[in-house]
Amino acid sequence: MKDLLQQYAAVAGQDVVQHLRQLARSLQGLKVVHVNSTREGGGVAEILTKLVPLMQALGIEAGWEVINGEREFFECTKGFHNALQGRPTVLTKSMIEAYEKTNAVNAERLRPTLEAADLVFIHDPQPAALLHFCPGRKGKWIWRCHIDASHPYRAVWKYLRNWVAAYDASVFSLPEFAQVLPHRQYLIPPSIDPLSEKNLELPDEEVQTVVGRFELDPERPIVLQVSRFDRFKDPLGVISAYRLARQLTPLQLVLAGGNASDDPEGEAVLKEVMQASNGDPDIHILLLPPDAHRTINALQRAADIVLQKSIKEGFGLTVAEAMWKAKPVIGGDTGGIRLQVINHQTGFLVRTPEGAALRIRYLLHHRDHLLDMGQRARRFVRENFLITRHLREYLVMMISLLSGQEERIEVE
Ligand code: UDP
């Protein structure tokens, strides 16, 4: 396991790895548990897949638990998600009951592990009520919010806040997302893993094979958006932007997505996307299985430009993934995308399909600029959004929470 960490020295630098080992010294043997609601699909699962083994490699006893639930539970938590991202949302009494009951049932199963842990990371609203059902907990509990909570729909946040307020700390990705809460709040943006199947270098032939497999034309530019089929990702806006851009520029659009098992709205959105594409042979809607990491990697490498035209976005791992592959990203001017896409530097920020179309055309007609921007994007991710930085910030937070120090922490 020790070797796992060492592999990152080549990408992030030996000093970075050394620093992680130093920070982890006081955390040896600590029991840390992460809890979320799906093992695959979506950004949280993507991050935990590597963060947990990396913590283990640092000598921390890290584990990852997933809560199970029925449809009504996930409808309710999707409602929480929508509401936190500002959409007025009505939750019925029976949905709220399903939420609380599901947390209670999962707590029965997880209680021994959670109560014995030194640190528990609860990701997003789905398992947020677990704390209430673990009255004998001995460790610190952290609520990690991955969602753009900048303007939550108040009625729903008021309900959720009751659970969250009992935590010892919460973590948000951006200062704008932080809420009024009676505990410490940390700002830690997510990250990508440069060594995962999703992001490692691929041979050109493999990229071309994937282009062939999906019957893309290697001669014409490819614009790609990778996303769950979710309205906040604005797939219909992407289709409009493609239509506008291609009036003057030959183009193909790839919308690659799949379903996260904790997202019940995906099917309906996919239907809308199919309808909007109206049989256009240059719109490729790809439904990929949740483990298609290498395929997504290849598609991101095959693309000329990557779009992430979200209307709300907690972070947008897909943005960092594309930038790491030296692709300029045209992203929605919102939330975590703003942290990554520095307008005119590492990509373009847009608010409308017209804006996106304008930038697509500009980049395709200024190839030098496209390439420069891509290189800047890659450097920006290397400096700011690799998993090693993310891990370092988690370690510092863990030390500060356990030591009770607010102002400064001492490391050996
Ligand atoms: N992803 C995937 N398959 C898909 C769609 C998305 O593997 O069909 C991955 C994507 O590459 C990224 C993550 O899921 O790593 C999505 O994270 P992001 O933060 O962009 O959005 P979220 O789904 O968490 O809102």
Explain how this protein is built.
With 412 residues, the protein is α/β, with parallel strands linked by helices. The protein has two domains: 2-191 and 386-403, Glycogen Phosphorylase B (Rossmann fold, 3-Layer(aba) Sandwich); 204-384, Glycogen Phosphorylase B (Rossmann fold), CATH 3.40.50. The chain has helices spanning 2-6, 9-12, 14-24, 43-57, 71-84, 93-116, 154-164, 204-213, 235-245, 266-277, 293-302, 317-324, 335-340, 353-365, 367-384, 387-403, and strands spanning 31-36, 61-66, 119-123, 140-144, 169-172, 184-187, 222-226, 252-257, 283-287, 305-308, 329-332, 347-350. The strands form two sheets. The protein has a six-stranded parallel β-sheet, with helices on both faces. Strand 11 (329-332), helix 13 and strand 12 (347-350) form a beta-alpha-beta unit. The longest helix has 24 residues, at 93-116. The radius of gyration is 21 Å and the shape is globular. The two termini are 23 Å apart. The chain binds uridine-5'-diphosphate. Uridine-5'-diphosphate binds next to helix 4, strand 8 and helix 12.
Task: Indicate the CATH topology of the largest domain.
Answer: Rossmann fold
Low-confidence regions: none
Helix/sheet category: alpha/beta
- Large-scale geometry: globular
Number of beta strands:
12
CATH class of the largest domain: Alpha Beta
Mean pLDDT: 95
Task: Give the terminus-to-terminus CA distance.
Answer: 23 Å
Q: Which CATH architecture of the largest domain would you pick?
A: 3-Layer(aba) Sandwich
Hetero groups: uridine-5'-diphosphate
Number of helices: 16
**Helical percent range?**
40-55%
Order of helices and strands: HHHEHEHHEEHEEHEHEHEHEHEHEHHH
| Share of β-strand residues | 5-15%
The largest sheet, given as strand count, sense and whether it forms a barrel, is: 6 strands, parallel
Radius of gyration: 21 Å
As laid out across the biggest beta sheet, the strand order is 2-1-3-4-5-6
* Total count of domains: 2
CATH level-four homologous superfamily name of the largest domain: Glycogen Phosphorylase B
